[in-house]
Specification:
3-stranded mixed β-sheet, 279 residues
């Protein structure tokens, strides 16, 4: 199944936009075309691309799930049940995702379920599109132009005016491996993405499901000179699973029966990557 989101979300340096008026227009007609707007899109692993003017954010998945990679005899499902899918105009973009404006949010709630017969250690890797942007604060000041990702990842209870990432506490960030700008041809025209890598704090038993890594995505408010009209950008999400038993380090088995540490998760993830150099 492929889903997508369109969004003119960047504020241009050269032109002031009345976002209140645009929000009203969006309510009246989501299919509105903005020929000279710049925005950016979000993905989650699959793509149905289309251009209607403005910029596209789009999320995707394969067979109703996020891209999944496994090591050992394990099977998982990764998906986002809250992500909007209604597309009344049939343009391939969910209505709720069209013409996103600064600080607008879209439900997006990736989680993993162990659908196999063996326990698994699971991971999420998020690669968000990177552009040269100048984030605009709530008081209208510009915070300085730099390369950074375009979205905040937030929890359901986070307010609209909380402008920072907030990942679920059950997911442990692998801080020595992530937060890098990487090559990502799928992310945008510039081919750049910013990575976040997380491991779940415990092994998943058969039939067990993780908490969501985040519940919604909020596009930032920014000025930009690099986002082109009709550009498609993607947030790429990948799910990984490694069989939880018989994982060894320096001849000793890694204990996965309790709460997993960042050190253990980092080691397991690296072993996984080493066995899968193409990923």
């Amino acid at each position: 199944m492929e889903t997508s989101c369109t969004t003119p979300m960047a504020m241009l340096y050269s032109r002031k936009i009345d976002w209140t008026e645009r929000r009203d227009e969006k309510v009246q007609k989501r299919k509105l075309v903005w020929p000279q707007r710049f925005g950016i899109a979000l993905v989650v692993l699959l793509s149905l691309s289309l251009i209607v003017g403005g910029l596209y954010a789009y999320l995707t998945d394969i067979d109703d799930s996020i891209n999944v990679f496994t090591i050992g005899d394990v099977h998982i499902k990764a998906w986002e049940p809250a992500f909007p899918t209604e597309d009344t105009d049939g343009n391939g973009v969910p209505d709720e995702c069209e013409l996103l404006i600064p600080h607008e949010t879209i439900p997006k709630d990736p989680r993993i379920k162990n659908t196999g017969t063996n326990d698994a250690v699971v991971f999420f890797k998020v690669t968000a599109p990177v552009e040269l942007i100048n984030v605009i604060s709530d008081d209208g000041s510009r915070l300085g132009e730099k390369e950074e990702d375009l979205f905040y990842f937030k929890q359901a209870e986070d307010s609209e005016d909380t402008h920072q990432n907030h990942f679920d506490g059950n997911w442990i960030e692998l801080t020595t491996l992530d937060r890098e700008i990487v090559d990502c041809a799928e992310c945008n025209e510039e081919g750049k993405g910013f990575t976040y890598i997380f491991g779940y704090h415990t092994r998943l038993d058969t039939g067990e499901e993780t908490s969501t890594l985040f519940d919604k995505v909020q596009n930032k408010k920014y000025g930009t000179r690099t986002v082109s009209a009709n550009e498609v950008a993607q947030i790429r999400i990948e799910a990984y699973a490694v069989q939880a038993d018989d994982i060894h380090r320096s001849g000793n088995e890694v204990n996965t029966s309790g709460t997993l540490t960042e050190e253990d998760l980092t080691y397991i993830y690296q072993v996984f990557i080493n066995q899968n150099p193409a990923i």
